[in-house]
Specification:
By secondary structure, the chain is an alpha+beta fold. The protein has 13 helices and 55 strands. It is globular. The two termini are 29 Å apart.
Length: 944
């Protein structure tokens, strides 16, 4: 979009706001409103209210995920289903007291762990609520019965809801409201109340029945009592009352508080829980990874039990991806290990297991509370603790412990490096041979395409490492769009040529390199274009619980969000603390990315956000790498986000960290790029060459600074943080320029937070974050001229989208090799963070679509960022291309706000070179001009 004028002062490259601005504040806001109206229709979401992902799509993705292949000789037991129980000291007495109080009301009993009212009434005083709250419960009615819910202050009802006779009624200042229901089954009731707005929602079984209607009493702004009254027989279960208290911290504007959380069950202390005959009949069934946490489970240890019948075997190995943050592992009543780190565990448990008998594995996960919350963390500091994926491997004594593969060379033949680790816990050598076989596996399976067999002598006790190079002729490569995967089978035979052990993994044939200022994947120029996740997903009471370990459905949801944006990258950027290594090593993202064809920047759980760089878990980093090594979707290891205290120390701090972290990662994996920090300017290094420090003094970099796998990049926000357009017009910044001009390594914008965009507030009525402006609100004043009000949310989204496109466009033309928007979805800052491309409830903002536009392999636009076209300004088209050689035609069309064509210009037979090409075309002026605003549509057509 551009504004047109005959005023000659608008000639040249005008800023939206800045040194060469032409518009005033009112003009800028009017411009943005016009942009929002046109763009929302152009992207076929005129009301900006469409969810980007559905539950059905999530289920389809998970059901289509191809399970990992199984070995033929060893037995691998995926310990998926467990019994679980949460408990903290003192809960037994607390629950007894609470149940006694519930039963003290007339006509109220507890039966089968549910509250039963037979013409009974509960009047319960609660700590006052004076802002926003929600009530959830499950209800079952007998024939002819009704239940009445009331939330009140003194004698005054603030909210009243009656359910019965297949109807729901509520009182409002608009009169009695009524709706028909099907009450044959359990009914899920949800009331979302806003005492500030004096309105509330009622949802039944997830369906909105009353949409933010006025409360019965508009004068009362406090609730301190709840009434539940049953006529006939009414069963109530799972009663939750959450209060949201206002807070004067702009980054945490409200604090969730539990007023009532009752499932009407007696909390029994889990005595003798490790015994095989312990009665766990009332424990909850869960699937790994299993997580506990958040306010509702604060302080509770998570107890897990798994029974399994085993046959005969020689060796048993328990593999735990993570017991986070630590805990205990028991087998058959004996302590196997006490865990004090998040590191993956591979434990020989042979002596604890009973052959040809029933066994019990019991795990206790310690509760966790964050120490120093980082900027975007929720008020709830009970960051989820969990048992990650766990399996039991039954094998021979001589065992293949690990197989790691990567592509060394690529051409008509791919040379695959295979590292095999074997261990034999005996006093003598083991002699035999090892065979490595490759098979096509995804999307289609096929016969053996390569095989090699070599003799081996396995030394006793120690881990023996065997390196085998294997050529693959005419390989099917892994890449977005064609994510081909191979099954790699490793067979271990004894001297009689009998297979005694095997291990099977899946991988892809793929290389990643950088040279000449470009990124190469499979020897073709590529970009990494996408977003990052932060690990915070609403509802508010689960922000902390699911931070490090979400359900499968959330993992799939986020991967679909990335895919639908035509992005090819997800940066795994999950954390909740400043100085603590608390990233994630969630293998589920890698499995999905492998099969969906999405690149990953991987941080591992050794990652830190900020603070001292030495808080990176350097010791544990290789162990985390080993668990995900074979996933071709992982193209870069990231050790830290932006440790920011290097300059508090002498120059050796930067040198030593860069050397140590690079060598730690490279020694384990020479095939991927390595990012020690995504914000190099915090180090002492002042330019690309590393021969000047940040103050301009001469220095000598460590050799690792220029190592082949070392990245360059930063977090460049040319229109973010309230920046004026001048910063974009004069881009790149000094650091970026030194890297881009060197023309050697690829250069990534690891975290470009271009700006904030207010959500469509209509979609969050009744939610605790409704109309709460983010701490980022002042950015609008810097970039636009003033803060935009809640009713100007469309203009706010327009600014985010307009600036995102113009900024990403210019950065691509400057030679940037990839982007990661911060971040994908809302949820951070207790749900009030507004930079994300998708709101807290799955609705994409306008910037989601302009990111998608920028991620096209071939696009056209204006060669500059001129916002106002004066009488002498020309349209200067440019085409940015990524891919094979093409010959295309370009049509540049001028339309008005009604999308009526006013004029057009065509370019024919434009030659686009293979790789990455930028073609600037001759400028022109339209003959017909719009009245004020013009929308310029660039359409690229293939060769006729």
């Amino acid at each position: 979009m551009r504004q047109f004028t005959k005023d000659p002062t608008a000639n040249g490259e005008t800023d939206f706001k800045g040194e060469t601005e032409w518009l005033d504040t009112d003009g800028r806001i009017h411009f943005l409103n016009q942009y929002a109206d046109f763009a929302s229709k152009f992207f076929e979401n005129p009301d900006l209210d469409q969810a980007i992902v559905t539950d059905g799509e999530i289920d389809s993705l998970l059901s289509a995920l191809k399970p990992q292949p199984s070995p033929r000789v060893r037995e691998t037991l995926l310990l998926k289903d467990w019994k679980s129980y949460g408990y903290r000291r003192g809960q037994h007495e607390e629950s007894k007291t609470a149940l006694r109080e519930w039963k003290s009301y007339k006509g109220v009993t507890i039966e089968e762990e549910a509250l039963v009212l037979e013409n009974g009434k509960i009047e319960k005083t609660i700590d006052l609520m004076d802002w926003r709250f929600k009530l959830e419960s499950r209800i079952r009615l007998s024939s002819g019965s009704t239940v009445f819910w009331s939330l009140k202050k003194g004698k005054e009802n603030v909210i009243e809801v009656e359910i019965g006779e297949n109807k729901i009624r509520t009182q409002s200042t608009l009169g009695m409201k009524e709706s028909t229901l099907d009450l044959n089954q359990w009914v899920d009731l949800l009331i979302e109340a806003d005492l500030q707005e004096k309105k509330f929602n009622v949802r039944i079984n997830g369906v909105l029945v009353f949409d933010f209607i006025p409360m019965a009493n508009q004068k009362i702004d406090i609730v301190d009592e709840i009434i539940i009254e049953g006529h006939g027989k009414v069963v109530v279960d799972d009663l939750l009352l959450m209060n949201y208290a206002q807070n004067d911290n702009v980054r945490i504007p409200f604090i969730p508080e539990v007023r009532i959380d009752e499932n009407f069950e007696l909390k029994k202390p889990p005595q003798n829980w490790t015994d095989i005959d312990f009665d766990d009949g009332d424990w909850k069934e869960v699937k790994l990874p299993a997580v506990h946490g958040g306010l509702r489970e604060a302080g509770e240890a998570l107890y897990l039990r798994k029974k399994l019948k085993l046959g005969g075997f020689e060796r048993g190995t328990l593999e735990i991806e993570s017991l986070d943050p630590g805990g205990e592992v028991w087998i058959n009543g004996e302590v196997v290990t006490v865990v004090d780190t998040r590191h993956p565990r591979v434990i020989d448990v042979t002596r604890y297991l009973r052959k040809n008998d029933q066994n019990i594995i019991a795990v206790k996960v310690r509760p966790y509370r964050s120490n120093i919350p980082m900027t975007h963390s929720p008020a709830d500091r009970n960051i989820g603790w969990f048992l990650d994926e766990t399996k039991l491997v039954l094998s021979s004594q001589c065992m293949i412990q690990d197989v790691e593969v990567y592509t060394k060379e690529l051409g008509g033949v791919a040379l695959q490096s295979n590292t095999i680790r074997i261990q034999y816990p005996r006093s003598e050598y083991f002699s035999g041979n090892v065979q490595v076989n490759y098979y096509p596996w995804f999307p289609d399976e096929g016969d053996t395409v390569a095989t090699v067999t070599i003799p081996v002598e396995v030394r006793p006790r120690i881990v023996n490492t065997i390196e085998v190079d294997l050529p693959i002729t005419d390989p099917l490569l892994w890449a977005p769009g064609n994510p081909h995967l191979y099954k790699v089978e490793v067979l271990l035979r004894d001297n009689e040529d009998q297979v005694i052990d095997d291990k099977v993994i899946t991988t892809g044939i793929r290389t990643i390199d950088q040279s000449g200022g470009y990124l190469y994947v499979n020897q073709k120029v590529e970009m990494l274009n996408g977003v990052q996740i932060m690990g915070f997903r609403t509802p508010v009471e689960k922000l902390a619980k699911y931070n490090r370990c979400p359900p499968d459905e959330i993992v799939a949801e986020e991967m679909l969000m990335v895919q639908k944006m035509d992005a090819n990258l997800l940066r795994i950027h999950v954390h909740a603390e400043k100085d603590t290594a608390d990233g994630v090593n969630d293998i589920r993202y890698a499995r999905l990315a492998d099969q969906m064809g999405i690149y990953l920047i991987w941080s591992t759980a050794g990652f830190i956000r900020e603070g001292e760089a030495w808080n990176v878990d350097i010791e544990g980093y290789p162990a985390y790498m080993a668990r995900v090594f074979n996933h071709p979707s992982i193209v870069m290891w990231e050790a830290s986000n932006h440790p920011n205290r290097f300059k508090n120390h002498d120059i050796s701090d930067s040198h030593d960290y860069i050397r140590d972290i690079y060598n730690t990662i490279y020694d384990r994996d020479p095939s991927r790029l390595i990012s020690p920090t995504s914000f190099w300017q915090h180090t002492h290094y002042g330019n690309y060459r590393g021969d000047l420090d940040y103050e301009g003094n001469p220095m000598v970099p460590v050799p690792e600074y220029h190592a082949s796998r070392m990245t360059r990049g930063s977090q460049d926000a040319y229109t973010g943080y309230g920046a004026e357009w001048t910063k974009l017009r004069t881009a790149p910044n000094e650091w970026a320029a030194s890297c881009l001009n060197a023309g050697e390594k690829a250069y990534f914008n690891f975290e470009h937070e271009e700006s904030a965009g207010q959500p469509n507030w209509e979609l969050s009525k009744g939610k605790p974050w409704y109309k709460i402006q983010s701490y980022e609100w002042s950015y609008e004043k810097g970039s636009i001229g003033r803060k935009l009000n809640a009713d100007e949310w469309r203009a706010s989204q327009a600014w985010q989208a307009f600036s995102a496109w113009e900024s990403m466009k210019k950065q691509m033309l400057l030679g940037y090799d990839g982007f990661s928007w911060c971040s994908l979805r809302g949820g951070a800052n207790t749900g009030t963070y507004q930079k994300p491309l998708i709101d807290n409830l799955r609705h994409p903002k306008l910037a989601y679509y302009t990111n998608k536009m920028a991620f096209q392999r071939t696009w056209a636009g204006s060669a500059n960022v001129d916002v106002i076209y004066g009488p002498d300004d020309a349209i200067e088209p440019v085409i940015h291309h990524l891919g094979e050689q093409l010959v295309v035609n370009l049509r540049v069309t001028l339309v008005n706000a009604e999308n009526i064509e006013l004029d057009a210009k065509e370019y024919h037979d434009v030659q686009l070179k293979r790789g990455r090409d930028i073609v600037k075309l001759p400028g022109f002026q339209f003959d017909a001009l719009p009245g004020k605003y013009g929308f310029i549509v660039y359409e690229i057509f293939g060769e006729e």
